[in-house]
Every structure is written in structure tokens, then in C-alpha cells.
């Protein structure tokens, strides 16, 4: 067998460079994480060779006796971890999981109440450029301007007025506890299905660090690659009554053959989440994120909603650095080896391409082994770069910060070889 380095040196070199980037940068993108090498072993296995359209013991192809075992284990672990009645582990991504939920019980044109993208919602919650916004009639809810929190009273009033068929709850950039029980009552009172998208917080939910929507929601989806620390992919949990509709919506509704190598990695991920150590990891994520958030606040930055209960927070740059766009902030921090993303803030005044917020997440640095003591150094690095932008100190601040990042990342090497 020819090794990749010989077979395709171009691709090999790019992957090696990407590993170098990951080793030498501070990763603060809230939707990313570092998986364990053993999980990559499962994902890089011969399971990639196998077609398995259908579900365990109900496949369209022969030779599925081993992949059946893998998928059954993944399903059982998902159900156990979240206390769910049914699990589908086949969605290739979070977006595909959401597609399956909508199509399982809704018709094109049906009304859905979903969270506004610029208030923290996701593309698949009704953005006009996304299938969700094209196929369904979305009405949006958001957060209160005064405190950045979901306005449940207004949401309940909107639900009563609009009578949606489904209410979508869950976000990509909301840093506070979501009251799923309250959401379920609002949905019940207007006769809507409740769909909770916990793509971001699933790891915290699994660990009991954030309340679970599973007892209250008809449908729950998540990605497996964020706080769950698994492979890139999606997962659906639902009540037994919707099991058949969900399975048909995934296959043959939305997808063909499942990615069995990814499902094996999902099973490994879910197995890890079931171990006692995962609770500590999830608690550490929140502690680190809160420490980082406090360190930014201490340096004069305004945090949307005033803080965080989970693995992320949003800095509204307009308060302390009104001239600085988030795009410029992101690009300049990149030069200092700090990776994060620009994000619109609620009641945004700039275009989404420029934006006024930076989203900061603590899951990846926690996986790397960093602790609360390191969070103040990270905040100091970010602050030095941001405050120097556009001044004659800019180049020196970038160079100095990069050295500090390299010193910090060298203390916490990633466990990968390539
Ligand atoms: N839902 C939410 C709330 C998300 O934040 C994301 C991704 O960031 C998704 C769904 C979609 O996941 P994917 O990128 O795997 O399609």
C-alpha cells in the first residue's frame, strides 16, 4: 500500500499544514472542537467502503452484519445518553437532520416560528437563502434589546397570533440557558410541534450542565462535532410516535447510503459521553468560557446578554471599539494565530459581511487541556490586538501576540501525528 505522502504529496502537504495550523493557533470558533485520535481511527476505517442503505436488519444491500452492529450501538448509546425514545444517527450534517425533521411532519408552505438568525438562530431556521426559508413560511422571534435574552412572553403572544405548525428553538450564538419547558408550553398552547436544535449545546445537555429538551420536545436535533466532541455529522432524537416518520424522512427522504465510518465515530463519541469523565469536561468548558468572558468584560468589552451560561459568548464591539468591524477584528486576530468568527449581534447595524460581534467559544481550548488560568492570557492577547488595530502599534501588537499564542499552544500540544 502506497502511503499518502507518496501517492498524493500535494494533498499530504496540505493536511500536514492544516495540522500545523491547528497546533499553533488558539481555536475559539464556538462550533469547533478537537476529537480524540481513537475516534479518528474509527472514522478512517474500512467502514468507508460499505454501502448500507436502510436501517439495521432492514438493508437494501448484503454484507451489512457488522455495520448493523455499529449503527445499533450508536443508536442505543444516543438513546441512553439523552434519555430519548428514538434516535436516528444517519444525517450527514446538522442541516440534513433539520431537513428531515421539517419534512417528516410538515408540508411545503406550512408556518414555522423560528429564531431570527441575527439574534442567534441558524440558517436552517428560516433564512431566505436556505431551503428552510424557501420551503416554509417562517415567522421569526428574537431577543429583547434591553438584556439580550429570549423574550418568552412576546414569543408566546406571536405563537398565539400566528398559530405555527412548528416552533423551532435552539441557536448558534445564544449564550444563556434556554427554557425548553416554557417553550413546550408555548408550543402546546398553540397546537404546534416543538423542535429543539441543540447543535451547539448538546455536550452540555448530555452532561447535565444545561437542561435537556428531550422530555419536552417532539424532535431534537444536534450536530455531533461541537460540544459533543465527535465527528462532523448530525443526529435526530424524537418521541416513539415520530420514529417512523423521521427514519423515512432521512432515508429515503433526504439521503441515500449512510456514512458508516462516520456512524462508527459517532458511536465512539457517544460512548465517551456516557463515561463519568465527560461530565467534568462539560463543566470545565463552561468554567473556562465564563472565565474568558469575565476577562474580556474586565477589559471593557460589552458581552451580549451580559455573560454566559454555556460554551460561548458574543462580544458587541460597538460599545468599546465603535470604528472596528468584526470582519477586520477576525482578520487581524488571524494574523496573531487566534481563530474566531465575526457574527452579527442582535439589532445589528452593519451588514452581516462586516458585522459588529465576535463569537468566542471555549470547547476547543478546553479539549486541549487549557484551564481557567489560561483564559486571562487569551483575553489579554485578543485585547492587545483589537486595541492596536489602526494605530502605529498594530504590527508590533500582532507580532507580540503571535509569540504569546505560540508559547501557550506549545504548552498544550494536540495529540495528533500525521
Ligand atoms: N443548527 C445549529 C444551531 C447550528 O449552529 C449548526 C451549525 O453550526 C447547524 C444546525 C448545522 O450544522 P451543519 O453545519 O452540520 O449542517
From TrEMBL:
<keyword id="KW-0489">Methyltransferase</keyword>
<feature type="site" description="Plays an important role in substrate specificity">
    <location>
        <position position="225"/>
    </location>
</feature>
<dbReference type="GO" id="GO:0004372">
    <property type="term" value="F:glycine hydroxymethyltransferase activity"/>
</dbReference>
<keyword id="KW-0963">Cytoplasm</keyword>
<keyword id="KW-0554">One-carbon metabolism</keyword>
<dbReference type="GO" id="GO:0035999">
    <property type="term" value="P:tetrahydrofolate interconversion"/>
</dbReference>
<dbReference type="InterPro" id="IPR039429">
    <property type="entry name" value="SHMT-like_dom"/>
</dbReference>
<dbReference type="InterPro" id="IPR015422">
    <property type="entry name" value="PyrdxlP-dep_Trfase_small"/>
</dbReference>
<dbReference type="GO" id="GO:0019264">
    <property type="term" value="P:glycine biosynthetic process from serine"/>
</dbReference>
<feature type="domain" description="Serine hydroxymethyltransferase-like">
    <location>
        <begin position="4"/>
        <end position="382"/>
    </location>
</feature>
<comment type="similarity">
    <text>Belongs to the SHMT family.</text>
</comment>
<feature type="binding site">
    <location>
        <begin position="351"/>
        <end position="353"/>
    </location>
    <ligand>
        <name>(6S)-5,6,7,8-tetrahydrofolate</name>
    </ligand>
</feature>
<dbReference type="InterPro" id="IPR015424">
    <property type="entry name" value="PyrdxlP-dep_Trfase"/>
</dbReference>
<dbReference type="GO" id="GO:0005829">
    <property type="term" value="C:cytosol"/>
</dbReference>
<dbReference type="InterPro" id="IPR015421">
    <property type="entry name" value="PyrdxlP-dep_Trfase_major"/>
</dbReference>
<keyword id="KW-0663">Pyridoxal phosphate</keyword>
<protein>
    <recommendedName>
        <fullName>Serine hydroxymethyltransferase</fullName>
        <ecNumber>2.1.2.1</ecNumber>
    </recommendedName>
</protein>
<feature type="binding site">
    <location>
        <begin position="121"/>
        <end position="123"/>
    </location>
    <ligand>
        <name>(6S)-5,6,7,8-tetrahydrofolate</name>
    </ligand>
</feature>
<dbReference type="GO" id="GO:0008168">
    <property type="term" value="F:methyltransferase activity"/>
</dbReference>
<feature type="binding site">
    <location>
        <position position="117"/>
    </location>
    <ligand>
        <name>(6S)-5,6,7,8-tetrahydrofolate</name>
    </ligand>
</feature>
<comment type="function">
    <text>Catalyzes the reversible interconversion of serine and glycine with tetrahydrofolate (THF) serving as the one-carbon carrier. This reaction serves as the major source of one-carbon groups required for the biosynthesis of purines, thymidylate, methionine, and other important biomolecules. Also exhibits THF-independent aldolase activity toward beta-hydroxyamino acids, producing glycine and aldehydes, via a retro-aldol mechanism.</text>
</comment>
<dbReference type="GO" id="GO:0032259">
    <property type="term" value="P:methylation"/>
</dbReference>
<dbReference type="InterPro" id="IPR049943">
    <property type="entry name" value="Ser_HO-MeTrfase-like"/>
</dbReference>
<dbReference type="InterPro" id="IPR001085">
    <property type="entry name" value="Ser_HO-MeTrfase"/>
</dbReference>
<dbReference type="GO" id="GO:0030170">
    <property type="term" value="F:pyridoxal phosphate binding"/>
</dbReference>
<dbReference type="Pfam" id="PF00464">
    <property type="entry name" value="SHMT"/>
</dbReference>
<comment type="pathway">
    <text>One-carbon metabolism; tetrahydrofolate interconversion.</text>
</comment>
<comment type="subunit">
    <text>Homodimer.</text>
</comment>
<comment type="pathway">
    <text>Amino-acid biosynthesis; glycine biosynthesis; glycine from L-serine: step 1/1.</text>
</comment>
<dbReference type="InterPro" id="IPR019798">
    <property type="entry name" value="Ser_HO-MeTrfase_PLP_BS"/>
</dbReference>
<feature type="modified residue" description="N6-(pyridoxal phosphate)lysine">
    <location>
        <position position="226"/>
    </location>
</feature>
<keyword id="KW-0028">Amino-acid biosynthesis</keyword>
<keyword id="KW-0808">Transferase</keyword>
Amino acid at each position: 500500500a502506497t502511503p499518502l505522502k507518496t501517492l498524493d504529496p500535494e494533498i499530504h502537504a496540505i493536511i500536514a499544514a492544516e495540522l500545523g495550523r491547528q497546533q499553533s493557533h488558539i481555536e475559539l470558533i464556538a462550533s469547533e472542537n478537537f476529537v480524540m485520535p481513537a475516534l479518528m481511527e474509527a472514522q478512517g476505517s474500512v467502514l468507508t467502503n460499505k454501502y448500507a442503505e436502510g436501517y439495521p436488519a432492514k438493508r437494501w444491500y448484503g454484507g451489512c452484519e457488522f455495520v448493523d452492529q455499529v449503527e445499533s450501538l450508536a443508536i442505543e448509546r444516543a438513546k441512553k445518553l439523552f434519555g430519548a425514545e428514538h434516535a436516528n444517527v444517519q444525517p450527514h450534517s446538522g442541516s440534513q437532520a433539520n431537513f428531515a425533521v421539517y419534512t417528516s411532519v410538515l408540508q411545503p408552505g406550512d408556518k414555522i416560528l423560528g429564531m431570527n438568525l441575527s439574534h442567534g438562530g441558524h440558517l436552517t431556521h428560516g433564512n431566505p437563502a436556505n431551503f428552510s426559508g424557501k420551503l416554509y413560511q417562517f415567522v421569526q422571534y428574537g431577543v429583547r434589546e434591553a438584556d439580550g435574552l429570549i423574550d418568552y412572553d412576546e414569543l408566546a403572544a406571536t405563537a398565539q397570533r400566528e398559530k405555527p405548525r412548528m416552533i423551532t428553538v435552539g441557536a448558534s450564538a445564544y449564550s444563556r440557558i434556554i427554557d425548553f419547558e416554557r417553550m413546550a408550553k408555548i408550543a402546546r398552547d398553540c397546537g404546534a410541534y416543538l423542535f429543539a436544535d441543540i447543535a451547539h449545546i448538546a455536550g452540555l445537555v448530555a452532561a447535565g450542565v444545561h437542561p435537556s429538551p428531550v422530555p419536552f420536545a417532539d424532535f431534537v436535533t444536534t450536530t455531533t462535532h461541537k460540544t459533543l466532541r465527535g465527528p462532523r455529522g448530525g443526529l435526530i432524537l424524537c418521541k416513539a410516535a415520530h420514529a417512523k416518520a423521521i427514519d423515512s424522512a432521512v432515508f429515503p427522504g433526504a439521503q441515500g447510503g449512510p456514512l458508516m465510518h462516520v456512524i462508527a465515530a459517532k458511536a465512539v463519541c457517544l460512548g465517551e459521553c456516557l463515561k463519568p469523565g465527560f461530565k467534568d469536561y462539560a463543566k470545565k468548558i463552561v468554567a473556562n468560557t465564563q472565565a474568558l468572558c469575565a476577562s474580556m468584560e474586565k477589559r471593557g468589552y460589552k458581552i451580549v446578554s451580559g455573560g454566559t451560561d454555556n460554551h460561548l459568548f458574543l462580544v458587541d464591539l460597538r460599545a468599546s471599539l465603535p470604528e472596528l468591524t468584526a470582519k477586520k477584528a477576525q482578520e487581524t486576530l488571524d494574523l496573531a494565530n487566534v481563530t474566531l468568527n465575526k457574527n452579527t449581534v442582535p439589532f445589528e447595524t452593519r451588514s452581516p459581511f462586516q458585522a459588529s460581534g465576535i463569537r468566542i467559544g471555549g470547547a476547543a481550548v478546553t479539549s486541549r487541556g487549557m484551564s481557567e488560568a489560561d483564559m486571562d492570557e487569551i483575553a489579554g492577547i485578543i485585547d492587545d490586538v483589537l486595541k492596536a488595530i489602526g494605530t502605529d502599534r498594530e504590527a508590533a501588537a500582532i507580532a507580540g501576540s503571535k509569540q504569546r499564542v505560540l508559547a501557550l499552544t506549545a504548552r498544550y500540544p494536540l495529540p495528533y501525528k500525521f
